[in-house]
Amino acid sequence: MTDISSAINGRTSANNFDPTHVMTQAEILDLAQLANQTPTSFNQQNWRLVAVNTPAAKGRLKAAAFNQPKVGDAAVTFVVVGKIGGYKDLPTLIKPMLDGGHIDQAAYDGWIGMANGMYEGKEQFQRDEAIRSASLAAMTLMYAAHSKGLVSGAMIGFDSAAVSAECKLAANEVPAMLIAVGRPAPGNWPRKVRRAVADVVSFSAD
């Protein structure tokens, strides 16, 4: 394991993966369990993962990702899926909070009511939220992989319709990105240069 500062400073994007590396289902689920801790707006948890790890499935996904080699070479490529309209699941998702006595009925009703007021009838906003949540989960997943001594590479270069068909996504689901995970092979670039902190942070005026 590595501490969070080391993970943030040490993680880099990989393009070259060891094609002989195989991850067990338990190892894949361990990464997914860590990603599952990602926060979401109103706790709607409007995302999920499709773990593509068999040779045949990786071959089909690779074709849908413009034949990027890392899709086929990585031990697993995760399709990070955002769910549009995830706020509709809140009555079920937060019921354990009510049943456990952590919130009362008024808080439960208010929680759902605020979410409905924010998202209902706003399809673009719902889609934006799905991409936001999926993106946060993807970053958590990449740090989780790094903490296990693995490398990862995120991709947005793919045929969305083809990936949706391959993964049998529902009409209200969208593939936000692909994340290849596995052991590195030679030839990966070093960590890329970042902008100076002074260029990315400003402070509010009095």
Labels describing this entry:
alpha+beta; NADH Oxidase; four-stranded antiparallel β-sheet
Description:
The protein has 206 residues and is of the alpha+beta class. The protein has ten helices and four strands, in the order ααβααβααααβαβα. It has a single domain, classed as 3-Layer(aba) Sandwich (NADH Oxidase). The longest helix is centred in the middle third of the chain and has 25 residues, at 123-147. It is globular and about 55 Å long. The relative contact order is 0.23.
- List the uncertain runs: none
In the CATH hierarchy, the third-tier topology is known as: NADH Oxidase
Structural class: alpha+beta
Number of domains: 1
> How would you describe the shape?
globular
Q: What proportion of the residues is helical, as a percent range?
A: 40-55%
- Strand and helix order: HHEHHEHHHHEHEH
Overall pLDDT confidence? 97
Largest sheet, if any?
4 strands, antiparallel
Through-space gap between termini: 42 Å
- CATH homologous superfamily grouping: NADH Oxidase
How are the strands ordered across the major sheet?
A: 1-2-4-3
Main CATH class: Alpha Beta
Determine the strand fraction and express it as a percent band. Answer: 5-15%
Beta strands, count: 4
Our Rg estimate from Cα atoms comes to 19 Å
> Based on the structure given, which CATH architecture is correct?
3-Layer(aba) Sandwich
Alpha plus pi helix count: 10
What's the quick description here?
By secondary structure, the chain is an alpha+beta fold.
